[in-house]
Design goal:
This protein is α/β, with parallel strands linked by helices. It contains six helices and seven strands. The chain is globular, with a radius of gyration of 15 Å. The two termini are 23 Å apart. 41% of the residues are buried.
Amino acid sequence: MSELVEIRWHGRGGQGSKTASLLLGKVASDLGLNVQAFPEYGPERMGAPVLAFNRISEGKMTLHCQIENPQIVVVLDATLLEVVDVTENMTPGGKVLVNTSRNPQKVREELGLEPGQVFTVDANKISQEEIGSVFPNTPMLGALVKVGKVLPLDDFREMIRDEFASKFSNKPEIVEGNLNSVDRAIQEVQGE
């Protein structure tokens, strides 16, 4: 990766969009990349739409403002497609990754995008089965790294293992559940 990549996360309060953005930033930084990871807060309440952002680059970053034109948009809650224009100001040819069990072609048609721009993965189902609760942010990270090619997949997986092992040092089952959810999302993400 030589150019600046900008990512916008759409979620609802409590789904982990901020946490996913920060975790992606931490892993990218540990891999030696220049990173910015930050949320945008409105009224803080569970279930309210929230935004988070990432900038990742091998080169020096001189931008220190909101992300206006993301190349990648990640949507943690498909119900947001009905109330938020998730493609607003997305760069031409940009990619949208949506947490849904729906077919990517149907989502693409609804968003008015071209083939190759929309990817879907059922992160809710994956996290429920692997972690035991609905935490879509973890599988969405795996799908994002695969679809967006923002980090080398093997390096990402190794670094994310270290992050989970550090955070959940006394709960190896949570570490394994999160890693399994990342791996499944990498395998199960669909595009057309």
